[in-house]
Amino acid sequence: MAFSSVSADDLKRRMDEVQRFLSVSLSIANAHTVDFYTRDVWHTFVAVSPEEVLTAMSSARGRTGAAEDALTLNENISFGFCDTTKKLVDVAALLRAAKAHSLAGLEVCVQREAVMDALRMMSADAQDGISDGAVVPNEFMNSKKAHEVPAMSEVVASLAKCCRAKQVIDVGSGKGYLCSFLSLQYGLQVFGIDCSTVNTHGAQERNRKLKRFSRAYQRHSRVKSNQEVSPKDTSSRNVEEERAGQWHRVPTEHEGTAMEGSERDRSTEQVENHAGIDVESHMAEVQSCASAEPSINDRSITNGPRDCAVDSTDADSEDTFFTTLSPDIMEQATPRVPPSQLSLEERERRKRDNLERKVRDGRGNTDNRNLFSPLTSYVTAETELRTLITELEDAVMVGLHTCGDLAPSTLRMFVAKPELQAVCSVGCCYHLLSEQFDQDGQDCETAVYGFPMSQYLREQACFCGRNARMSACLALERVSVGGGLPMESLFYRAVLHVILRDHYDAHKSEKRVGNVYSKASSFVDYVRRALRKLDLDESKLSDSVIQSFHDLYRPRMSEMVAFNMLKVTLAPCIEGLILLDRLCYLKEQENVSCSALVQLFDPLLSPRCYAVIGIKRRGIS
Hints:
This protein has 25 helices and 10 strands. The chain has about 625 residues and is of the alpha/beta class. The protein has an 8-stranded mixed β-sheet with strand order 3-9-10-8-7-4-5-6, with helices on both faces.
């Protein structure tokens, strides 16, 4: 039974439609915000006023569709662009086309509930994979992770059941949120592979703490599920439930918004420092961390030299989790008594207990198997998994927000390794993908590129471009409900570029300005900090001269706002092409029986919400 009715031929036809649309509109997504004024980007690509663009976009939010309008054709206009000048002349037409060529408009995605139903039928167990009272403590994970981890875990557990697999390999596991949940909630043996020793150390520390509490937690869960509540126990049980609710409940929408807002304030500088990317000079990179992925944990791993950021507050939050567990489920440590003070009978009893424990461990005690094993390794599609995991059996490979090329590598490993029976991959950081046919891109050391993956798009030499892939990280859903773009910082950086061109001839310098905006008190202060960071002589310019640049371009800031909104509109289409390429790659493989693109998460809580899922044919690896 397949997850969806989209055949390989239908998928290719829809990919062709997206490519045709992007061949006309991609020029906007590939325009660099830093060059906005030095290259007069607005008048180069747009033939209408900024006010017209913003008005059209505002009115389009309230429209449910315009099928009849979409059928209106003009022989001189394609998707709102003039065929002769290549400029945007019809904003409404562009918005309709963008909506039609997004994943939602193409109707290729499968809802999570439909996948769960299909997996239950395939495993002949309608109840398996459903957790009873999943533990989602807000002290253990932020609100975004508390939404993502249980949702993905349920799908992964159902995939494991369907494939009769007892092991899960989490690539880019970070601090082990997904691993911990899978092992505790579903009793799976999980191996978390990460290239960062810092993250592996954090996972090991969590593993040590989980060993202390896991048996007590599981015992508490069994007792709670078997207990019958009598009328006289109702009042005391209510007290217990109220206390337990503090760590069982999922954060409310209001709390989640507040928490994400605080993390968003931290994210920009952290991502820039770890990835070596000039946040202010790359609009999409700022937005990918400030709006598209507000939690640093989302991209805690990149399987390569450009690591994404790790949230240093994780350790504190996990300590809070363990210390706030209800007393009735905590396994109290028995005070250690020196052997010399024990009676002969007690010493004999302990000796017997130790021997019995060793026998149980020798038979494969499930208590230890249920806790995940963090491993540090750089992995590619060619990595021999058995060299990392000696006890490897049939397994499910997963990745939650794997950065750049790590997501394609996860799919390639799934296809190539006979032990891997299923895959569930959620990617992110599209700007870090290596691209085979991008002439301006950097060469890939392994000659195995992240895009395109499918033979179908490789034969067409399909490419997007780095700036377009950066645009794909933007979050249309959040902007649509009022989430703002970091416009002032982008405006500052674009005007700085004009100053560098006019006074320093340094606008093509390879040096990065970095996250200067967050430290600056004004535009003049921003420019002076940037000049010092670029090792340029700031004394050449007076404060009044610097301010004059700001005053000159400030009236044109609306152009930048409108242009970036156009980029946001195109983001789902570019992301869609990347994800459809990955799905097409799986459909091209003879040993893959089922594959689908699934919306796992709420895009408002987690903008990178799509997973590529696949299951191998039985007997063919």
